[in-house]
Amino acid sequence: MLDDELNKVNQFYKSKESEFVERGEMLNKQLQILHDLKRILSDRRHLTATCALSRSTSSIARSSDFSEEQSESPRNSSETEEVIAALEKNGVKFVNSSKSSKKEKIKVAMRIDIPATTPTKTISAVTSMLWEDLVNNPKKVRGGGEYINKKKIQCAEKMIRGAFVELYRGLGFLKTYSSLNMKAFTKILKKFDKVSNQKASASYLKVVKTSHFISSDKVVRLMDEVESLFTHHFANNDRKRAMKFLRPQHQKDSHMVTFFVGLFTGTFVTLFSIYAILAHLSGMFTASTQASYMETVYPIFSMFALLSLHLFVYGCNLFAWKSSRINYMFIFEFQASNALNYRDAFLICTCLMTGVVGAMVLHLILLSTDLASFAPHRLDFIPALLFLSFLLLLVCPFNILYRPTRYCFLRVIRNIVCSPFYKVLMVDFFMADQLTSQIPLLRHIESAACYFTAGSFKTHRYETCKSGKLYRELVYVISFAPYYWRAMQCARRWFDECNVDHLANLGKYVSAMVAAGARLTYARQPSSPLWMGIVLVTSVVATVYQLYWDFVKDWGLFNPRSKNLWLRDDLILKKRPIYYASIAFNFCLRVLWVETVMRFNNIGMFESRLIDFLLASLEVIRRGHWNYYR
After folding, report:
1. Please, what is the average pLDDT of the chain?
2. Among 59, 107, 347, 515, fewest CB within 10 Å belongs to which?
3. Model-level pTM greater than 0.85?
4. Residue 451 confidence class, pLDDT cut points 50, 70, 90
5. Cα dihedral sign, 373-375-376-382
6. Can you tell me the distance from the alpha carbon of 502 to that of 491, in angstroms, rounded to the nearest whole number?
């Protein structure tokens, strides 16, 4: 039986070793192509500078320089022809090439076809093609030299550098696999000797040590070769700089993070208790004062509360994935420099909520003093400054407060907003799914932006941002935007992968958009039985569609042939009742839209806003629950 396991290890190691060796050869060939292209570009620049210098000389010197150039041009042309022929054999495409005669210079436009494997390639593919064909046409190049797109060379260099980093990382994993299996065989044989009172481990260990996964040194030699190539071509012969790319340092868990999580949690609970007591004593939520206070404070602070809740739920997801040994770093293709662990997520969440509740307490105290009667609109600057500080911190260019993570988040949001033109990665559609659960947050951002940019905080005329035609149209746009982005991602994935399931998934988000639009219209015409019927039909269809996709497609449940009744064969959680409870939990939270067609009478503005906030919070919790099983 141990022989079978040894054969399995050897076969797996051999297959991966040959795969990495082949990848290394291809990357080496591509690096040589890149080097040749850069050499052609350098030669062309040198030739252009020489021609410019020759034109500035006297007529006698011009004639002699021309004769020298004529004698040198065949040599340069022949070298270029050799390089071009070698590049064509290796897959580099040349367009509009024409060789009219041996005496004429070769007019070639070099077009490097880079696949759209990263988001920015989709737009640049169209723009660069138009630029090359319409602006940088080879016929317009003075002197008839070669035109090489420098941006594409830089892009290709970046892609090859990333490929070398991934190759080195894979070789490191394979080397770790070899050492771990050697350690496993050693421990198994020692345990066998101890149980059987025999000394058979020494002879068998000799067999293990002579097996391929231990005796082969191809992986080590290939790692050394990658290090030398990367240091020479991408790090200017600086080995220390090269190792920062090839062996990035992982973040170490700090007890200070845990300490500050506890500190901010205690501070948040204390400040929130103080706020609740002050609000009750000052009568802030009575009928006479709650309208102005809720219109000013609710959009800002509920926005931060929903964001903090989502961060907390995401931290719980990270902790649950780590506990279940789910390699989310590999799944999302996170880098060690920009990935958060669950402690960091909890720290950001508690720190943010502490600042928000502190600002709420300060705002409430100032409202209760004489300053409120003297200049009430100035107090509204506190929520505005809080919102502005958060935006400035998000785009802060200094390397503080998780800058790699913040910029990675901004790049993902950019990819989502321009979904049809960007190749969809796992982290992109995962984040887009989160946005579909944060439509109330987006609407709060729109309300707050309208309130402060329109100057309504000076006059306290809240109807400016409620009854305007533009505001009513923006409500539909904001409610549709997350579903539209997600639908466009599905369309792009169908275009790239030709999988019909992505079109079916697109239909799910289209049905959600129709249901959201019907509910918004019904909220403005609550007495219309027609719109109530439309809301019921569209919402039921969208909910059934979403539940089917959640359970069958995303979670892989409801398999009638599964050995686990109506679940799936591979279960990470050993207790099956947890899955059945999760199905019921997701179903209940999916039908919360029923509240929109129920008309609650005799409730004030505070109670209405509180219900809206609770429903939005439950949707965020449902999304976090969905994330774990997804």
Report:
1. 80
2. 59
3. no
4. confident
5. negative
6. 7
